[in-house]
Design brief:
It is a single chain. The protein has a single domain, classed as TIM Barrel (Alpha-Beta Barrel). Helix content is 42%, strand content 16%. Strand 7, helix 5 and strand 8 form a beta-alpha-beta unit. It is globular and about 55 Å long. It has an 8-stranded parallel sheet with strand order 1-5-6-7-8-9-10-11. A 3-stranded antiparallel sheet has the order 2-3-4, with no helix packed on it. It has 336 residues and is of the alpha/beta class. It has 13 helices and 11 strands.
Length: 336
């Protein structure tokens, strides 16, 4: 496929298969995602017995999705699994089967609408050897330009030594990595009060994940591996001056990386989903106008129905707007 050279590209969207087998019956475990209701109408997502969210038809149906894309001026979406379905808690072989099912469902949609969608595959990162196998299949057979990973893997940070072979494979295959928070490891009971896990926990978790790939040497060890972080990088831009100050004062931090963290900030991408013109302006100043891409979190309520509308108050020059809406995403995804 040759993606469009004009028109906006949304790199942060999620989609669900329209149905799947009973993984709890097949593999055991009480946390597998399951649907209750008709995906063509009203549908509920449960994680085991725990209600997660309501889902509308646009969570499943690419035709409904394309209607919304046309309405908001989005030419191309990157489809990725929904974070509640990462299933990093599961046994490795069962999780690998789950990821294959989701990735095949995404691939089928891309095959039907190759001019409107690209795929970002999920990986069973709790089993790095199986994750590499699925990564290779995603990149070579399904021809996805990216994978989506959580900001932590069941409590394991992205700079954990066990994940190094996965990053080796991703770098060798030229696959981009989109990072989305899912299960905050810092203060989970505290952020869960008033159902604020996504509101408070996600931006803090993203900032922690970004800090770990910087101080953990990930960006130095794999300089060609392309990373993008959801939600404008969460709280990372705000704490970056403090990270720089700490790097200059603390021997352990200074010994970990050869340059201040602010220099590494301009080696990753972040999406535009900040929900604030002021915060988006700050993100552009922090990461650079060549490192911000459009993101909507479609079709979820905490995202935005019109990601391009968030750019209008900034009165961007045409060249900068073109980079944010299209060119930066093409570079992140390595679209020829």
């Amino acid at each position: 496929m040759t993606p469009p050279t004009s028109g906006a590209i949304d790199v942060h969207t999620h989609i669900f298969p329209s149905g799947w087998d009973d993984f709890a019956a097949r593999h055991g475990g009480d946390r597998w995602p399951r649907l209750v209701g008709d995906p063509a109408g009203t549908c509920k997502l449960y994680l085991g017995q725990t209600f997660n969210r309501n889902l509308g038809p646009n969570s499943f149906d690419p035709v409904r999705r394309i209607e919304d894309m046309d309405r908001t001026g989005i030419a191309l979406q990157l489809l990725s699994p929904a974070p509640p379905t990462f299933c990093y808690w599961a046994d490795g072989p069962a999780a690998a089967e789950w990821c294959r099912m989701q990735n095949d469902a995404i691939a089928a949609i891309v095959a039907r609408h190759p001019d409107r969608f690209l795929g970002a595959g999920g990986l069973p990162l709790q089993a790095p050897d199986l994750a590499i196998k699925e990564l290779e299949r995603v990149a070579t057979s399904l021809r996805f330009p990216a994978v989506e990973v959580g900001a932590n893997v069941d409590g394991r940070d992205l700079d954990d030594a066990a994940l190094a072979p996965v990053w080796d494979a991703a770098a060798a295959l030229g696959v981009a990595v989109f990072v989305h928070p899912q299960a905050p490891v810092a203060g989970q009971p505290r952020v869960a009060k008033q159902n604020l896990t996504q509101v408070i926990g996600f931006p803090l978790e993203t900032a922690l994940a970004m800090s770990r790939i910087v101080f953990g040497g990930v960006l130095d060890r794999w300089p060609r591996l392309r990373w993008c972080f959801a939600h404008g990088g969460g709280a990372f831009a705000y704490i970056l001056p403090r990270l720089d100050h700490g790097w200059s004062l603390m021997d352990e931090a200074h010994a970990a990386i050869p340059k201040p963290p602010s220099e590494y900030a301009r080696r990753v991408w972040v999406d535009s989903l900040t929900l604030s013109p002021r915060v988006l302006t700050f993100a552009l100043e922090t990461f650079g106008p060549e490192r911000v891409v459009v993101g909507s979190d479609y079709p979820f309520r905490l995202g935005t129905d019109d990601p391009l509308a968030g750019l209008r108050p900034l009165a961007l020059a045409a060249g900068v707007r073109g980079r944010i809406t299209r060119d930066n995403a093409r570079e992140f995804l390595n679209l020829k």
